[in-house]
Specification:
The structure holds two protein chains of two kinds. Chain A is built from nine helices and 25 strands. By secondary structure, chain A is an alpha+beta fold. In chain B, 36% of the residues lie in helices and 5% in strands. Chain B has helices at residues 6-20, 25-28, 44-50, 68-78, 80-83, 127-136, 147-160, 172-177, and strands at residues 40-41, 66-67, 169-170, 186-188. A two-stranded antiparallel ribbon of chain B has the order 2-3. Classes of the chains: A alpha+beta, B mainly alpha. At the A-B interface, strand 1, helix 2, strand 6, helix 7 and helix 8 of A face helix 1, helix 2, strand 1, helix 3 and helix 6 of B.
Amino acid sequence: MDEPLKDVEGEETISRRTLLTGAAGALGVAVAAGLPHIARGQGVQVSTPAAPVVPADATRLPGAPTTAVGSRSPFVRPSRTPVGETTGYSLTPLQDLTGTITPADLHFERHHAGIPAIDPSRHSLLIHGLVTTPLMLTVDEIRRFPQVTRQHFIECSGNGRAAYREPNPDLTPQIVAGLVSNTEWTGVPLKVLFEEAGAKPTAQWFLAEGGDACLMARSIPMAKAMDDALVVWAQNGEPIRPEQGFPLRLLLPGWEGNTSVKWLRRLELGTRPWMTRWETSKYTDPLPDGTARQFSFDMDAKSVITSPAAPQSITKGWWPISGLAWTGRGRITRVEVSSDDGKSWADAIIHEPNLAKAPVRFTHMWEWDGRESVLLSRATDESGYVQPTLTEFVKVRGIGTDFHFNPIVGWKVQPGGRLVFHGAT
Amino acid sequence: MRRAWMLPLALAIVACSRDSGSSPASMAAGEPARHYGLGRAATAAEVTARDIDVAPDGEGLPPGTGTVQQGAAIFQAKCSMCHGPRGQGMPPAFPALIGRDPKAEGFVFAKDPNLTKTIGNYWPHATTVFDYVRRAMPLLQPGSLTNVEVYSLTAFLLASNQVVPMTTTLDSASLTQVKMPYAGKFVPDNRRGGREVK
């Protein structure tokens, strides 16, 4: 998938191909001259390889020896898509995953100026502004503070844009909702770092800035720092991947992903927001009344069926309807599934663990009788919020709103058994 | 002195944790609030080197001045290859910067997904232009522009979007005074969970 998917996330995307062939010869020359993280051969087509060759009977000869780093079975080839995006995104293949944890190498990506190459021994975090002592912390020092390990999702607030703006039957779970991933993060509560620097009570907001080429920055209310914000360095038991912010990222549970600033290098405490591009021009939500919602941090409850789903085909008989549900407002309390386009609903099983601001896996056994069916899921969270239908959502947000898409979506099972995307609810 | 603010913080934690359903950070870590003596005091020079942000009240704006005319020349030399000679952009990769399409006036973006947002018809703060250009542009040479160049580009972009006159010279004082056409359209988030969809 060399050509970037148009506007799935909601912002401009710049792929290697665009840089080479698109806007300007000057850019192409610069790339050819060897800008490392842009020129690296990322825009390679991911083609379907030939079936792996294995022995007819694997019990009749010794197997492979140990290796330094394991790899997936050659029969298992999940992949993010699209690839080669320097200021763009790649989506998690939700249809290929089970449980709730996203393998680190399949966590969705969203970069505004590519992935910086950072030597952790030269990286530091500066905390300044309304503090008694401006503090410079190395990565090693940050790892010596009291630590916590927690599961939390990160969801880009542009997740679901393709299904909202450009629905078509071929959309897959990856395209419909693949800008959400879930991780076991380890780090230090941000509150501990702010206490160490001596945060002043006059501080109402802080600016979090990343060490990438655009110095991505967001203004965050201090209340979030005092609640559950973390500065994390580990992802599923190992150092954070470069795509996810190595060596440090801010982690704001339940909030739109852009606020969990990657490659974190600076925190400034102040009295009011800074109004960066990413909290004014972008990540604001135009509304039908002619206003735009700003600092819309919380991610509302949402769910998606990941199997069966397009482009899968099924046969008559019993199938587990399986999917993910999550909310930025605590825990999921109920997931309902419909197989008749919302005429009737049944409670799905919510599997443990059910953690705050982390996705749950839900399943519901369903017997397909061969007739056209529409499979939908609907999540409810502990605040009492119920995932809206598309009709309800459009009424309050308008067709041109830009972020926080969470209407009920699903899959139509055609009489022959093939599934296609179904977005109208 | 450093402990004086602990009590209000503790109260804030209780309030926040009740709302979110998650545990307060330090308590979850099983550790009382204390200082660990990790890290070192940052020097003033270190803070200055990183502290590049600019806010709507003008805090962080450096000395220097720039004109629309200077900005136009810089734009053609350093920006137009991506954003187009008239700032019309090459979407989706390179966004439009300039434009006051009458159809997109009045902040009607929620009703039409095809409208193009530009600095003139959407951005609420002029200082954001300076802040973003200085921290992120040009794409392949971020951090390469002088403050005078950034003031000049900001003046050019604001004038081209019919926000300020073509004769404008910008410095820290005058940039802080610029009012954007739709600044009043931005409202706080009123979503609080619960049954009502907002």
